[in-house]
Amino acid sequence: MRRLLLALLLFSFFTSPSFSQKKTDLFKTLDTELEKARVALKTPGFAVAIVQKDQIVYAKGFGYKDVENQVPVTENTLFAIGSSSKAFTSAVLGVLRKDEKIDFDERPGKYIPELRFAEPWMNEQIIVKDLMAHRTGLPRHDFSWFMFPSESKSELIKRIEFQEPFTGLRQQWYYNNWMFFLQGEIGARLTGKTWEQNVKELFFDKLGMTRSNFRIPEMEKDADKSFGYSVELDGKTSKMDYYNIAAMGPAGAINSSVSEMSNWLITWINGGNFKGEQIIPEDYVKEAMSAQMVVSAGTPSKEHPDVQFSNYGYGWFLASYRGHYRVEHGGNIDGFSASASFFPTDSLGIMILTNQNGSPLPNVVRNMVADRMLNLEPADWLGETVKRLEEAKEAQAKAKAAADSTAKASLTKPSHILMDYTGTYEHPGYGKMEIDLKNDTLFVQTGLLGGFLEHKDYDTFNMYLIYQGEPNKDNAFPFQFVSNMTGDISGLKAPFEPALDPIEFKRTPKENELSIDDLKKYEGAYLLMGVQEVKVYIKEEKLYAFVPGQPEYELVNIGEHEFNLKVLEGFKVKFEEKDGEITAVSFIQPNGTFRGERKKVE
């Protein structure tokens, strides 16, 4: 009887008007604080949802999803969630493991037979778990997919073989989007369905996530979607184009709302269960939100001694937040930032989506909400962040002033005329860049992004990306062009991966199309060094050179009277003209130049 009375008293307390009023007052105060944060951080718009146990207790939009037309954000507005998608990708494998279709301790090559890594030890020792916990020894190599996107999964798989590691297996945690692409492809191979179909059928359909999607066209046709924006430190706001992540989707392609993502958090808080159905295997849930790799020391700071340790599970970051176990993953993609977090022992989940590129707001709002919902003394997260942004703004201004004061024209010249730097530059682990000369400026085009080159020193040029329609003059990639033994430009080195030496791209000169009549003037026999006869002739509408005792060589025109030997790097042929007639040829190769007069036809 006493226990029954206590239960009734507790029930009446939690359902009493006074308790409900406290919660209402809390959320009213939260409304004010969150709008204050939005304004202080110059964020165009964002949405937040809070879940407790199996209920959404708060969901609201702030600011604008369409700044130009002042259209407000709602709790149902779609945003790109970026890398908050990763937990979905790994969870697909969690479901497949329960079905005994995959072993996390197996090599990924078992499921993708054509997969090769750069080093033999990687092929032999990397297991699926390593892909899930960012511990393969590979750095990010992000420019390989960001600048050179592809819809071809097979092409992306081929690139991995040429992406160098920077450390040994499981020696250091390093974030890598490529390994989540591989997880998505492993799931696809095991089910015969695409990554998108797997996520939709296993999770979206079962969690009522009916508007969540994977592709920009689907996002664009939704009436309640947000545009993305960049916000400079001075507050200047610019609309950004959506980024099509293409075949790299498993690393971060999902678009969703805080209301639908709340169901995802509820599922994790409840051990993988949603409305009585086990959506994610319970043993996988425990494993995924347990430490699989140390991210960093995560030692307490002087300012926040109760925020500590930094580990990673499967698609989730793990930390101790003021004495509470926190599981979280952020997301950043052009124009959008996100944070999905939950506190499993507190049955609390917090979802934040914003339309600000690289925004500090999700972390600030997450902490503000957590402090209030966990009954902690609120820390001044907003004030600290605003202070850091002001310091960054001042540092940026000083750096620009210093750069402007020391800027000077290069005192050196390139070793070649600008036309000699044009051509196709390729690296098998990245892709192709085209460099063309237009109006005395060298322009670069990758698979997606363009840019231009500005001479810096000798054969080094600064490459400025044209990003979102504007040249990014604040960040330059130094391109160092390299020459072969004959002095021709043979490639360039670019620091696309900070953890490694510059990536070297091999140059193929532009091939000029010549008519048969143009080629005919080069035909004939040439006597090299007065001894060796070389024949030049047309076959199948192409020009060839034949030296006795050697195979015939196809000649590829790269300039006026200048040809490369198609199959030999560093070898070229240059013809001489006098009075409108070809009179001689020089074979230019690493061991010297060999000239021959054209034999007269008798």
From TrEMBL:
The chain positions of domain Beta-lactamase-related read 34-367
Extract the signal peptide range. 1-20
The lineage's top-level taxon is Bacteria
Keyword Endoplasmic reticulum in annotation: no
Offer one Pfam family short name for this entry. Beta-lactamase
Keyword Cytoplasm belongs to the record: no
UniProt-listed InterPro entries: AmpC-like, Beta-lactam-related, Beta-lactam/transpept-like, Peptidase_S12_Pab87-rel_C
Q: What name does UniProt use for this protein?
A: Serine hydrolase
Q: Which organism is it from?
A: Algoriphagus marincola
